[in-house]
Amino acid sequence: MSLWDWTLKAYAQAGVPEACLTLQDAHGQNTSLLLWAVWAEVGDPERLARAAAAARDWERLALVPLRDVRRALKAPAPPVADSARLALREDVKAAELRAERVLMETLEAMTGPKGGAHALRALEGASAAWGPPAPADVLAALAAALG
């Protein structure tokens, strides 16, 4: 199963979207990287560092700018009609989702053989490779939600 398809199934599980949003917004983590690490069962620090570097570059180039625009478009912007603003926000949201998919396809192409790491170990390694690690309890909550 592709990483993208696996991710869509994962997001349908209770607790996964909330844990991912907390990791992204409260702890500055890249959820695509975290989910890739679980899917690929990666525990190797070198593989995680290479993937984190690719994710960091793409986040800076595409994800953060799109996310910032989407969030800015949430508030009214007179004299622009709300319907036009909200329609544009949906377009930006779709572009942001496409950018997430491009990142996941890039990470999947970098995967190689599965590493055998359990979910929590993969999350801890990916979180540390990204930057300051997220709190252990938040990573454990995502690992538990993923099953």
Summarize the structure.
The chain contains seven helices and no strands. By secondary structure, it is an all-alpha fold.
Structure description:
This protein has helices at about 5-10, 15-25, 30-40, 45-70, 80-110, 120-130, 135-145. The chain is about 75% helix and about 0% strand. The mean pLDDT is about 95. The radius of gyration is 16 Å and the shape is elongated. By secondary structure, it is mainly alpha-helical. The protein starts with a helix and ends with a helix. It has one domain (about 5-145).
How would you summarize the topology of this molecule?
Layout: H1 3-11, H2 16-25, H3 31-40, H4 45-72, H5 82-109, H6 119-130, H7 136-146
Helix pairs in contact: 2-7, 3-5, 3-6, 4-5, 4-6, 6-7
Features of the shown structure:
147 residues; mainly alpha; 7 helices; 0% strand
Number of helices, counting only DSSP H or I runs of 4 residues or more: 7
Distance between the termini: 17 Å
Radius of gyration (CA) equals 16 Å
The structural domain count equals 1
Number of strands: 0
The quaternary organization reads as single chain
